[in-house]
Amino acid sequence: MSRYRNQLIQVSSFTNFAGEVSVWDIGTNRKRLRLALPQQVDSVALSPDGKLLATGNGSWFCPLARPAVWRNEVRIYDIGTGGLRRQLSLNDGSSRIPVAFSPSGKGLVTGNGNTNAAEAVIAWNMRTGTKAWAWTEQKSPLSLAFSPDGSTVASGNGEGRITLIKGQTGQLRGYIGASAFGIWGLAFSSDSKRLASGADEAMIKIWDLPP
Fold first, then answer.
1. Residue 101 CB contacts under 8 Å (≥ 6 apart), including other chains
2. Which residue in 102, 110, 116, 210 has a CA-CA distance of 20 to 30 Å to 86?
3. Residues 91-149: pLDDT tens digits?
4. What domain range includes position 130?
5. Domain C-terminal end among 109, 136, 163
6. What radius of gyration do the chain's Cα atoms show?
């Protein structure tokens, strides 16, 4: 849910690998936006000002006379108009694509769950569409979160480890050995001092973060 706009995102995926995303206004119970996408939707994120929607997408791509491949990309939409503002291409390969906006809305981090991806987590400049930094040491990120103060990006992977990355530089801040299961959800406290993680073990854990 967007902090400023009282918006809720509804995601649907279909057996033909297509997807649909709807944005609802909680106050009026009205649908503000509906997007029918040709790709499966793995994750979504609203910008802090409630104006942009990011979707992590994956789908089969079948060029003529070539084997089918799984194509990964991130799309940025204008919630007011429904128009596509930017499209970011990631490495091919079947995977989950988590997304998270920076607290200023000027940056976006994306993950590539493909174990063979050279760049597991990428930070993007939203104005230019270029890479600010890329993290290569952790494989198969399933979830991402940006701390409210912008200092840290948390990335949870399929092996139960959480990597803490410096939000401005992409340098390592530390690790948390969180679970024996994949980390599917992450959320920071409002003061950026604690992190909540959710995994397949049906348990939510709260972590005190190092200074």
1. 45, 46, 47, 48, 52, 54, 107, 108, 146
2. 116
3. 766 568 899 999 999 999 999 876 677 788 999 999 999 999 999 887 788 999 999 99
4. 1-136
5. 136
6. 17
